[in-house]
Amino acid sequence: MIFRINNLRSKFIVVCLLPLLWLCVDIAFDNLGSNPVQALHIRLGDWSLRFLCLTLAITPIQTITKWRGMADYRQLFGLYAFFYASLHLLGYLLADHALMWRIIGIDIIESPYIWFGVLAYGIIFLLALTSPKWAKKRMGKTWKKLHRLIYIAAVAAIIHYFWQLKGNLAEPLFYSIIVFLLLGFRVLVWVKNRQLTKMMIPTGQRVLALAEKQGVIQEAPRKQR
Amino acid sequence: MLIKTKANILSSQITDRAVFESRREFIKAATALSAGLMLPSPGQAATGKYADAPVGPYSAKLQVTDREDVANYTNYYEFSTNKTDSTVLAKALKTAPWTVEVTGEVEKPGVYNLEDILKDNPVQERIYRFRCVEAWSMVVPWIGFPLGDMLKRFKPTSKAKFVEFTTLNNPEIMVGQRSGVLDWPYVEGLRIDEAMHPLTMMVTGMYGDELPNQNGAPLRLIVPWKYGFKSIKAIVKIRFMETMPETAWHKSAPGEYGFYANVNPEVPHPRWSQSRERVLGGSIFTPKRETEKFNGYGEEVAALYSGMDLKQYF
Ligand code: HEM
Which intervals hold domain Oxidoreductase molybdopterin-binding (chain B) (predicted)? Predict the structure, then answer.
């Protein structure tokens, strides 16, 4: 299984670049409609959010299918979420404001919907920075804690989406539901694990105590994971 | 470049409009001639229904947006919240025959045929800037007539302090009205002095031809110094009122969309900046343009709001 998935991985790297290629073709052929800068933001923002959702979906898929070795995909999709978010940000700085920093400052201060974009990007940036395996090893438990912030990034991205719109809320609603379901899955697993440990520990201890009494073992072995 | 006409000259005071217009026509023709092979006047279909509408006052010499960009990027929630889908969906609307009900504080109420209204109000072309509250803008050669000229014919009484406009309500055709994005029908309003201002237009066409359905056919309002949502489409009812009408967007989000809705870069929308705007029809290499107070019509209309705190009355 692992071998096959790894083989697929290099193909995924290329496939994930197709949305960018498609965008470049549309730019070249002037296919972005009446408001091309907005279309550019929409394309790149949407793809960043989609990759973010894919990243979040990996663990639930692993849990349900019991496939192993998908962590590489989680990293891959996460990095693509970062990649498209970076292009999205670049589009904002260049296409909207031609790098006029004073104007960018005013625009961000006056636009609360962009604050949430900045928050989401800040988190995704940190996660991308700490995504290499050696960083994960060195950071130990902190890594897991830090990378849980991805949920905050997803929620911030969705608020960023909702707040720029006037009345057409169907699409951000769609992403909200997806993120809600994925987060809900984690909560469920967490609750279930807690219940299991609550139920399991006493039973386990009883068995061990019994075994000790009967002289099957000398000492209760250390609880193993 | 905006060719400014003094604000204190009302269109009704321009004694000989015909002379003025023929002069404009002459200038237009002369420019075309001297330019030789130059493209025809912006998007003006030589064959369009209003191809030879005279150029009216306040028309600005601005670079006009491509007709296709204007016709395929509309906020028409009666059909769809998608700006291009409404182009197709609005085709289902039948715009003739069309009547407009006139009620309220007025001496000559009644149901008027649009044809009759058009007979009384000869059309002209005016190139205006249009600025949407969503921070995009365009420049459109509208075909229409001053709203004030039309309203005066209904003889508003002294109690008429406001004018309320209502869009057609027909969920069978206007499929967007089946969902509750807004409280249908769409309602907009103006203070009577805003409505009577010579810049304010009733519009029946654009680019020398009839108004496409998605752009508000057969009759829409254009108030060039206000955000686009004030310029209500497919009008079926006009009511003169003593009190300020409740408008659709204000009802939906009172903190975000005010009754006045004057274009103002100094007053941000609660969720986004209004200081700049994306110009339709550019490329991804066209940065935003600075938004002008009153959309560049301050000289003509700022006096209407003297003494008012525009942050409070946004
Ligand atoms: C510094 C960070 C960011 C800035 C300055 C920014 C800016 C923008 C701008 C200007 C728009 C276009 C709004 C319009 O229609 O006028 C937009 C749309 C959008 N952005 Fe961002 N953004 C940022 C970060 C992000 C991130 C991290 C994500 C996703 C993970 C994201 C997702 C989106 C989405 C989904 C849209 C709307 C697309 C649609 O309408 O379908 N943005 N953003």
Answer: 94-249
